[in-house]
Structures are given as C-alpha cells and as structure tokens.
Write a structure and sequence with these properties.
Order of helices and strands: HHH
Number of domains: 1
Mean pLDDT: 83
Strand content: under 5%
Low-confidence stretches: none
Distance between the termini: 46 Å
Radius of gyration: 18 Å
Number of helices: 3
Number of strands: 0
Length: 109
C-alpha cells in the first residue's frame, strides 16, 4: 500500500508542475484575466480528478481488504485505506491552493 501511495504522490507532483510553471512563466505584465481564469479552471478540474482518483484507490484498497483479510485485520485494513484516501485528498487540496496562489501572484492588476 505504501508503494501505491508513493506512486500517487509522484503522479500528483508531476501533474501539478506544468500548471504552476505556466503561471510562474507569465509575461512581464502578468497573466491576463482570461488566462488566469483558464488556469484556475484547469486547476479546479485537476483537483476534482485527483479527488476521484483518491476515492477510486480507496475503493480498490477496501476491496483488497475484503478479499485478503477477515475480522479485525479487515477492519484495520479498511481504516488504513480510508486514512490513505484522506491524505491523498488533503494533498490534492494543498496542490490546488499552491496553484491558485501562483496564479494570483502572476495576475496583472
């Protein structure tokens, strides 16, 4: 399960990099209003996609728990799956906030 989490984190980091880099590479005058809106929409879409991926991973991990464990071990495994999903969602939110801050910082006034 740790390997899946590390892989998910790596994928999220690579997915966030282009948007943040695009906002940071804004022209000297900054991003126009429409460019900033487009980047914000893209950031929101990526956030929703990351949340859906986290929920899908949680469902897969819970399914693995049902097949591989019984009783107390199954419940512990499911709690771990829920905790991992919660952590992935939190990381998605942090990435989204960082992208929004980068967009705001590079927006033309």
């Amino acid at each position: 399960m740790q390997a899946k989490l590390r892989l998910s984190l790596l994928c999220v980091a690579f997915a966030a990099a282009p948007l943040t880099a695009l906002a940071a590479d804004a022209p000297a005058g900054g991003l126009t209003r429409s460019e900033a809106r487009d980047l914000k929409t893209q950031s929101d879409s990526q956030y929703k996609a990351r949340k859906h991926v986290a929920e899908a991973n949680r469902d897969l991990n819970k399914g693995d728990c049902e097949v591989a464990a019984d009783g107390k071990l199954e419940r512990a495994c499911k709690r771990d799956a829920d905790a991992a999903a919660k952590q992935e969602k939190t990381e998605a939110k942090v990435i989204r906030e960082a992208q929004r801050d980068a967009i705001k910082a590079n927006r033309a006034n």
